[in-house]
Specification:
alpha+beta; Lysozyme; Lipocalin; two-stranded parallel ribbon; 13 helices
Length: 411
Amino acid sequence: MNWLACLSMATGLVVSNSFPATCEPLNCSYETLYASKSTGLLRVDPVTPVALPPVYFCGESVPLHEEKVARHLVKALVSNSAHQQLLYQIRQRAATFFPVIEPILAQHNVPLDFKYLPLVESALRGYAVSPSGAAGYWQFMPATARELGLRVGGGHDERRDLVKSTEAACRYLNYLYSRLGSWTLAAAAYNNGLGALLGNIRRQQQRDYYYLRLSAETGKYLYRILAFKELFSNHHSYKGLISDRVLASLSRPVSPESDAAGEDILLPERFVDEAVEGAVRSGSRESGVVEEPADIPLPNAADVFRGGIKARLAQAAGLQRGQVWVFHLTRDGMTDGKAVEAGDILYATVEDVDSKTGKVFLRADRLYSAGEKQTYSLALAAVDASTGRIGIKLTDVDQIKAGWILTWKVL
């Protein structure tokens, strides 16, 4: 029996009339894709074939003529639609948050399909935290969040701010796209890390996500995003694959959650644990994930921040969080579209002291113009001048004295 006939029997799918001759036969013992019929939540009839519609991600066609690709998408659709009431609740949450996310994506020229990414990352829960410390709607680690201009520490965590974290995600996604040239690969790198993905591309001499051999988590990642997109925007095309009960629920109008901004009381933890299958990234990846090669640069401040000024330390305080240090600008320049002059004063706060990375993070929120005799609000971060990364090494801080000059980047 050829693999197409077996696929039709196992899943009830008809994916195409023509296929590459190189496709391997489907293993007929593949686990059943449909949920128990007693649940009534999802049905894949082994007798009635169901055609998969064309599917696209950011304008890139998904190769559903490939048996493995079609099977992964079906499994993701099954998983994401298995909890009918919880799926309705996350649609409610999306109705609240998508109108905020979409204009930000458009402003940064990021395809709108990425609005489904935080559904996979956090189920759109601002207070979602992974065991490794990734947090917020877009699940940033603390160091990555700071690199992208978010305040983390000192009683503030802007990873939980929908607007600011979405803007940071756009900066990061644009960076990944500039390195990879594909939004599909950018999504994979968001999950697996740029260095690990480039390592796989280099070793396998393959730049197509659907044909790369990746870790189990990253290999399923894009399909989870696609499943949410298809369920939310094209569910009628899956009649026969998805039960009438689930289709009726997906067709049911939703109104934005009135208390969504107040956080996560409608979505229990089991939604993340069971329905999204560990969508909130844990720190433990499957074995075989390649570590970041040292020769592959990570995004740094030069890539995601604009502008830069230098300021000389005039008055230092302690290294405790909240301590204020005073710096004087050393030369004229521009910051965030405003002209600044030598002698202007920065009031910088110790935002965090990270013993794990051996860095202190300084953030300036105010600038006093000596010429105009006026204080302006702005957001600057001290960066390592040699790398452009936010944060100053503690070994350098030990040598602090008047005259110490730091480079500052606009967030």
